[in-house]
Amino acid sequence: MVKKLRNFKDLSHITIQFLLASILLSGVFSTVQAQTDTTSAPADAGAATAAADNGIPTTPEAISEGENLFSSNCAVCHAIDAQIVGPALQGVTERRPLPWLINFIKNSQKVIQSGDEYAVNLYNQYNKTMMPSFAFSDDQITSILAYVQSASSQAAAPGQAAAGDTSATAQTGGTAGQDAGISSSYLTIILIGLVIILVLILLVLILIVSVMTRFLKQREDLDEADQELMGQRTNFKKIVTSMPFIGIVTFIFMAIVVKVAIDGLYSVGVQQGYMPKQPIAFSHQLHAGQYEIQCQYCHTGVMKSKSANIPAANVCMNCHQQIKPESPEIQKIYAAIDFDPETQTYGNNKKPIEWVRVHNLPDLAYFNHAQHVNVGGLECQTCHGPIQEMPVVYQYSSLTMGWCINCHRETEVNASDNAYYDKLLELHEAANPKEPMTVESIGGLECSKCHY
Hints:
- By secondary structure, the chain is mostly helical.
- The chain contains 21 helices and two strands.
- The termini are far apart.
């Protein structure tokens, strides 16, 4: 019994050594890790197919066409349930008759100059901001109004919109921001788990030693050596200076050093989180978030070229020729294009705005925005993260090769109503009938796709 007690005490000392080493190295690793981190709304399917009493169609096709036209031409100045440059459009089809709306959208100045009381009051109420004329056909205008009418009715049900927003977030959040490198949290979890296990083992050993000691103290046939063992107390200084403890600390320390070195190598060239200061403060949170301006309105090249392009100053002037001319940041735009807001004239002393590029791919990599956005149907948030929530733009995703490859492996190809994919889909279903056709399935991992 005394021999077993001695073995349990020795085992307790070893456990304490492991426990102290783990706690010590956990603190060291947390410090190293902290230092490392610092450096581094659809159309309503149930709508009636017949024309409404006000002459505005309610078919899903008309609403869908109107949504596209609205997003491309109207969303920069108007929203359904909020005032931007112009008034909120919710209920506009009830406030004014269809012929008046068609004439006003085609040429608002003509309606104002005719002396129409409603049009004149509207013009004066919004600081005499001129609404541009649009060369829309009557059918196109009625489709836009069909979308406005449908969106106005949906705006009365915020719960549905919130559910849609959650769904969209879930779709884009699944791939955005994932890093292909080794996560530093793994080792932290392992160390915490080890500490918990060692604490539980130590508690069990202490309980066993306590029970055995209490039992042996009741015996009177113990010799002097056994009694000395019974009176021993844990010597923490001896434990800390022992070779096993030093060996454990050395091993775990070297493991952390190797882990940090590997993480450092994986992060070479990765600029995730990069947030440079721009010459003019532009808030995507305000423009894309609060005012819901479509990304394609400013980044016009995203649908038809390799680059999304930096918006020219004249795109800014579409609104800011009249909106907030007193703002210091807007004044910087005026200075760059030599514009006098008082006389509304331009000079000849123009100079480019020196924007700082945020997202940089290496020269050896090829990426085409039009292919991904126009053909693939990807949302901007898939790669750029919640851009509509960023006061200052930063690089959200790692943009590493592994990150791109994972996306090609997981993303399914939408081949419906696209004859280009018919033969590829036929071949894929013949070879892998139970698996979806992903970008990888149609050659998305071939080297020449991204490396010329």
